[in-house]
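Tip: read the tokens left to right.
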């Protein structure tokens, strides 16, 4: 999947301007989905948070932002598509490929243009397709993909925003600044961040612990050789059943057990994935 980062004030890409409502038939919807974050990287959700898809004439398609069953997703917006068989649109809010539009985020009564959109843009605007589009609110005056508010927390000793780069590892913990931001941490201290601890290897399996950040979802991969990795099911202390992904509803410590498979002791290494 090709990932593209776009810094914007106004997104104009591939949508519509309504002409009429008599055209028919419609084409399959196009779906935008992803994560909406504030300038500190925290996922947004709540009754008063919406993603707005606005046509060039001001028509709106909107959807609320909140927890979804899919990891790493807190909004999913279906936009009607017109087949383009006539000059008129079958629906005033329908879109066609290569027509202008913009996406905004409404929090309460305040409407924001995202400072950053990251996603797979190759299928944008095509009927029946999906576009992963993560939206970040706030300011990014140096255009490096890290919001200014997050970078300011790392400033000191005469540094300015341009000295904080997404590919750097400011605290020396092996994670880039961008990965720290996405995971909900700061690059302050290499001892304080995303980590997975092996508590013990019991008869029932490996017992692991990690700290979860509100709004993030986590999965675990295992490997025998640090080269080939596979997804692992696990059990969460205090919960019933097996999990492939667990979501943190607050800042909390998770203790999980990866069950041992009888006769298979090849999984020796584990890593934590943040969605």
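Filled-in amino acids:
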């Amino acid at each position: 999947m090709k990932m593209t980062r776009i810094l914007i004030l106004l997104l104009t890409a591939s949508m519509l301007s309504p002409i009429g409502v008599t055209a028919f038939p419609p084409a399959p919807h196009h779906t935008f989905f992803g994560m909406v974050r504030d300038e500190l990287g925290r996922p947004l959700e709540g009754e008063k948070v919406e993603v707005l898809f606005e046509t060039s004439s001001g028509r709106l398609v909107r959807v609320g932002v909140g927890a979804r069953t899919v990891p790493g997703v807190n909004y999913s917006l279906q936009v009607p598509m017109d087949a383009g068989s006539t000059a008129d649109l079958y629906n005033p809010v329908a879109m066609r490929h290569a027509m202008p539009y913009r996406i905004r985020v409404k929090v309460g009564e305040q409407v924001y243009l995202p400072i950053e959109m990251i996603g797979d843009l190759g299928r944008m605007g095509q009927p029946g397709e999906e576009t992963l589009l993560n939206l970040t609110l706030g300011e990014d005056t140096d255009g490096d993909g890290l919001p200014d508010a997050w970078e300011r927390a790392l400033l000191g000793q005469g540094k300015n925003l341009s000295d904080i780069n997404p590919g750097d590892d400011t605290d020396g913990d092996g994670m880039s600044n961008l990965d720290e931001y996405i995971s909900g941490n700061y690059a302050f201290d290499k001892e304080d961040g995303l980590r997975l601890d092996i508590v013990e290897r019991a008869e029932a399996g490996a017992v692991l612990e990690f700290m979860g950040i509100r709004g993030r979802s986590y999965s675990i991969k295992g490997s025998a050789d640090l080269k080939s990795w596979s997804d692992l099911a696990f059990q969460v202390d205090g919960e019933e059943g097996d999990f492939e992904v667990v979501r943190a509803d607050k800042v909390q410590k998770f203790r999980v057990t990866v069950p041992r498979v009888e006769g298979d002791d090849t999984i020796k290494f584990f890593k934590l994935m943040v969605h």
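Residues 196-274 form one domain. The first strand starts at residue 4 and ends at 7.
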